[in-house]
Design goal:
Blueprint: E1 7-12, H1 16-26, E2 32-38, H2 41-50, E3 55-58, H3 67-77, E4 82-87, H4 92-100, E5 105-108, H5 113-124, E6 129-130, H6 135-143, H7 157-167, H8 172-179, H9 183-197, H10 202-211
Parallel strand pairs: 1-2, 1-3, 3-4, 4-5, 5-6
């Protein structure tokens, strides 16, 4: 029987060694339940018809159906299933297409194990996340024709510290640890930042922080 806090996941990756690496990296976390791993998107979608999961780790460069195509289908048919794109590519079109397809996060494959675990939990809770190393792709695409502007949005010094960590990709728990505050306090700061910046998620906040040199 699954526990209340357990997170069920599927892994979709065509390289066997990489799938094994993901499984080995996550097996020590007792609240992660790997329900299956697949070398094609089609096999994953077929499995979802029998058993849906909370989170899918999705490769982009799959044979036959691509990760982006699969993400669009899964997002439409199983809206409660979160999708984390894991790839070695930083291509502008791929990043934007992945987010537009309904992916909840975009991370590079060299992500640290602890950070991947935290990302799974963060995405399961409903957050959207993009690897800070490729935030520039989003920023460049949406604001490449505009000069960098200056505006502080009435952010407090503490909120600027939290925003800096948010742009670096830290979760609320990691921000709390860094600033030696409670997770609820960190979460409250993030909510205040999103409200002051007039954005709805962390990706938009990171983009705006870059645009306005925050």
């Amino acid at each position: 029987m699954e526990s209340k806090n357990e997170i069920s996941i599927y892994i979709v990756e065509d390289y066997l060694l990489t799938r094994i690496t993901y499984k080995k990296a996550l097996q020590d976390y007792q609240d992660i339940n790997i329900k299956g791993d697949f070398d094609t998107a089609e096999a994953c979608i077929e499995a979802l018809e029998t058993e849906a999961v909370d989170v899918i780790l999705m490769d982009l460069g799959l044979p036959y159906m691509t990760g982006i195509e699969a993400t669009k289908i899964i997002h439409r048919k199983y809206p409660n299933t979160k999708i984390i794109i894991l790839t070695s590519h930083e291509n502008d079109d791929e990043v934007l297409s992945s987010l537009a397809s309904g992916a909840n996060a975009y991370a590079l494959k060299d992500i640290e194990t602890k950070k991947l675990y935290n990302l799974i939990r963060t995405v399961k809770e409903g957050s959207i996340w993009i690897d800070p190393r490729i935030t520039k792709v989003v920023q460049k695409t949406f604001y490449k024709a505009e000069p960098r502007e200056k505006e502080d949005f009435n952010l407090t010094q503490r909120e600027k510290e939290v925003l800096d960590l948010l742009v670096q990709g830290f979760s609320n728990t990691e921000i709390a640890d860094r600033l030696i505050v409670s997770t609820n306090t960190a979460k409250a700061h993030v909510c205040n930042i999103l409200e002051k910046l007039s954005v709805t998620d962390r990706v938009q906040a990171a983009v705006k922080a870059t645009k306005y040199d925050l």
